[in-house]
């Protein structure tokens, strides 16, 4: 029994045993560091080459030593450059670099929408009113409600019929 409990106590103290939090840290960091020699953009956890395995071993060693994510990322950034990180850095330059395509799309889409909306408004012109047309009021000009066509303006038969109906309706209303 003493032998069994001594081995149970010794197991957590061995350097190869990692806590679940440390395993999660290694996985999280390994998934966000790029394989430096792979043609495709692969995280080191998905690459089976020797350098990726060495990088994972280094992450594991630094995790066991109590290094934070930020310290481990800084180590790899110093050693391999900014390109090794699959996720943008949290400084303002990195954020601006990664956000600029999205901002460009939003600004371009907004400009295009404004142009199209403005073009529709500018493209629709007001109807050309006939002289004396009471439906379109010009500022400062009084129009009579009963417009009779002049000699220069030919009478449209449909318009003449509508005017006659309106005149008849007015007379009927005033007469009753």
UniProtKB/TrEMBL annotation:
The keyword Heme applies. Keywords: Cytochrome c-type biogenesis, Heme, Iron, Membrane, Metal-binding, Signal, Transmembrane, Transmembrane helix. The keyword DNA-binding does not apply. The chain crosses the membrane at residues 96-116. InterPro entries: C-type_cytochrome_biogenesis, CcmH/CycL/Ccl2/NrfF_N, CcmH/CycL/NrfF/Ccl2_sf. Residues 122-176 are annotated as: Disordered. Residues 2-122 form the CcmH/CycL/Ccl2/NrfF N-terminal domain. It comes from the Bacteria. Gene3D superfamilies: Cytochrome C biogenesis protein. Possible subunit of a heme lyase. Belongs to the CcmH/CycL/Ccl2/NrfF family. This is Cytochrome c-type biogenesis protein.
């Amino acid at each position: 029994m003493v032998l069994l409990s001594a081995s149970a106590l010794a197991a957590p103290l061995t350097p190869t045993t990692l806590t679940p939090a440390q395993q999660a840290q290694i996985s999280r960091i390994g998934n966000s560091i790029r394989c430096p020699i792979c043609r495709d953009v692969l995280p080191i956890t998905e690459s089976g080459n020797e350098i990726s395995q060495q990088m994972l071993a280094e992450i594991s060693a630094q995790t066991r030593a109590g290094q934070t994510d930020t310290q481990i990322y800084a180590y790899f950034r110093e050693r391999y450059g900014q390109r090794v990180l699959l996720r943008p850095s949290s400084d303002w330059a990195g954020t601006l670099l990664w956000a600029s395509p999205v901002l460009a799309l939003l600004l371009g889409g907004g400009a295009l929408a404004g142009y199209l909306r403005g073009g529709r408004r500018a493209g629709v012109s007001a109807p050309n009113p006939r002289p004396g047309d009471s439906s379109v009021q010009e500022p400062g000009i009084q129009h009579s409600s009963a417009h009779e066509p002049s000699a220069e303006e030919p009478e449209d038969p449909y318009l003449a019929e509508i005017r006659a109906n309106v005149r008849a309706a007015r007379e009927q209303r005033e007469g009753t």
